[in-house]
Design a protein that fits this description.
One of its GO terms (cellular component) is membrane. The protein is an alpha+beta fold and 326 residues long. It folds into two domains: 182 residues, no CATH class; 127 residues, 60s Ribosomal Protein L30, Chain: A, CATH 3.30.1330.60. Helix content is 17%, strand content 29%. The chain has five helices and 20 strands. The strands form five sheets. Strands 4, 6, 9, 12, 13, 14 and 15 form a seven-stranded mixed sheet that branches. Strands 1-11-10-7-8 form a five-stranded mixed sheet, with no helix packed on it. A hairpin with a 5-residue loop joins β2 and β3. The chain is elongated, with a radius of gyration of 29 Å.
Amino acid sequence: MKGIQTMKHLALASAMALGLAASPAFAQQYQTDDTMAISAAGTQAGKVFGTSYAPIGQVAPDQAQIVYYRTQSAGGKAKAANVYVDGHFQTALLPNGYTTFCVQPGNHTLGAYLNDAPEYRGKTQNLFEANLKAGATYFLKVQESGNGAPVAVSREQAERELQGARAQVHALSRAATTVACHVTQAAQPVVAPAAPQYKDYKLKSDLLFAFGKSGYRDINARGREEIGRLVEQMRREDADTMQITVVGHADQIGSDEAAERLGLQRAQTVRRMLIERGLPASRIEAQSAGNTEPVVNACRGTREQVIACYAPNRRVVVRADMASAN
């Protein structure tokens, strides 16, 4: 398809850079947009790859910064993806390679094209336009299949995928609209989110209820004993002083609506029994996960076999919020 398409999917992300592991398989020639051949020997004293990935900082307010990269999943022998900026060749990315450049804020076309020769469609076809904001940094990922459109990703995702990558330096950029980046602030380290501070106590529904049942009177003697032991354990671990959420889970037999309803009814029944055994009602709530968090999938066979197969999905989880302890 000829013409310009708007990249509405481009999302603003925090600053980050990418790099690439050296590949001896790069032994072919790549063509720039002015038909000048760039050999595998490169233009920097035979180098194909430069520095390893390191996070990049905040770009100057009168620029927009782009980190364009390719993951290692394409394999070491994959052909290069030609990157074009405003219809002009910028570099040829190999797997696990990256390039960083800046442009003036405003509308620009961007793309990375595999099997680009001899048409070099990145200059004239499937041009993807984006309005790049002043002071913003964008992280764009090469599509290994498709029409050359860039994939915008977050800093968090890019940092996972760019570890160990190296800069692509073998080719000479012909992109006249790119400029040297002026970084005004060093990159801030990404702080991993805190691990969830809760503990799950899991009860198999088949130990509490007969198949398809959920009421208070449906709990069998073995199920009542199981809940009694659970309360004793929670008291030993001081979980009875915490905020508690009882979550009911159902299997994939029947409709989603029925599973949602059954999960909630079972959670409410277990909540009632916890309260009867002395846990404070004000600290316990009931929720349903329906059939949305299965342990097993795609059970087949007779009805009895399917019911038995899906047994792990029928469960009640009593979750204690460790951060809420008195």
